[in-house]
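Sequence in, structure out. Go.
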Amino acid sequence: MIKVEGLDHVAIAAKDVTRSMNWYRDVLGLERRHEETWGDMPVMMCSGNTCVAIFPLTDDQPAETKGPRVLHVAFRADRSTFDQAQKDLKDRGIAFDFQDHDIAHSIYFRDPDGYKIEITTYEV
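Output:
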């Protein structure tokens, strides 16, 4: 058995890397990391130990990217942050859906490239 420590990152392809980098910073409060080491690609936007790696979307994507897709990227938050996120999204004009999963509450919305983002809290 492989004992992993947790999710390191989710890699996405973006039409406009700078726009996506700014969106993840401004909407979700992620910070850019590893720029001094890796340069421009990928753009790593992180919170704690979890990151979103943003790569440019190109016409010559490898065959492996033509198969299964990411269903959504979920970020965990405490209750007050979850409640504040709904207000912030409304203020930004970003539509979201609320779902009650009994053990958790979640909101779902889209980033600039259409990836589904979830913020969830287990403080119900």
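Check: The radius of gyration is 15 Å. The chain has a mean pLDDT of 89.
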